[in-house]
Amino acid sequence: MIDIYAFLERFEDQLVEAFGDNLAFFGLQGSWGRGEAGPESDIDLVVLLHRCSYDDLVGYRQLVDSFDESRLLCGFISSAETLCHWDVADRVNLILDTRPIVGSLEELVGPVGMEDVRLALVESLSALHHALTHSIVHAPDLSWLEGLRKSMRFVVRLVHYYDTGSYVHRFSDLSSLVDDDMQRRILLSEDVDAESLWLWCDRLLRSL
């Protein structure tokens, strides 16, 4: 299994060499950031530059390709200014889910307040509710449920944060903290019937 700390140190060195003072932020998210990664887990990297051009994207792609671990590398590169214009759900999830290595996301794009979290929840639940409603009507074989599991876990984590003010990175830790049986089953990737899931999502959305 990859030594993630040694890898991140090597990657940081290459970022600094490639972008110098233009590097504004470097962070880790996803399963490695949560401490829940397996041997074949993707390495989700977040790189922000003060100014990001198309040539910077090409240069970053070449940097990624130079690593033996390139097949596992994903994530994105952008400018800090552009990130400020992201929709609230993506911006909130990015800030909360990313572990900083260089720089601070909150210093670049501002802190996350509870109204931001509420708006992110509304947006995320609306998308989930739409997908559930559409699929229940047009794909009654329920093969689509598996594809929604990941997004549902992120929604549950935001719900817990909004309700308690406590942000829990690891889904495995969060599953032992939630009282709602539906939320616990979602976090543990247990089978959830479509009707119960739709009712849960519908009730949550209307409560916000």
Structure, described:
The chain has about 210 residues and is of the alpha+beta class. About 60% of the residues lie in helices and about 10% in strands. The protein contains eleven helices and four strands; from the N terminus they run αβαβαβααβαααααα. It has helices at about 5-20, 30-35, 55-65, 80-85, 90-95, 105-110, 115-140, 145-165, 170-175, 180-185, 195-205; strands spanning about 25-30, 45-50, 75-80, 100. A four-stranded mixed sheet has the order 3-2-1-4, sandwiched between helices. α3 links the parallel β2 (about 45-50) and β3. α7 (about 115-140) packs antiparallel against α8 and α7 (about 115-140) runs antiparallel to α11 (about 195-205). The longest helix has 25 residues, at about 115-140. The radius of gyration is 19 Å and the shape is globular. This is Nucleotidyltransferase domain-containing protein. Pfam families: NTP_transf_2. One of its GO terms (molecular function) is nucleotidyltransferase activity. InterPro entries: NT_sf, Polymerase_NTP_transf_dom.
> Major sheet: size, sense and barrel closure?
4 strands, mixed
Quaternary structure type? single chain
Strand proportion: 5-15%
The backbone outline, from C-alpha atoms, is globular
What's the total number of strands? 4
Number of helical stretches of at least 4 residues: 11
The chain-level mean pLDDT equals 92
Give the helix proportion (percent range): 55-70%
Q: Which structural class do the helices and strands define?
A: alpha+beta
Organism: Candidatus Aphodenecus pullistercoris
Domain Polymerase nucleotidyl transferase: 10-55
Protein name: Nucleotidyltransferase domain-containing protein
GO molecular function, one term: nucleotidyltransferase activity
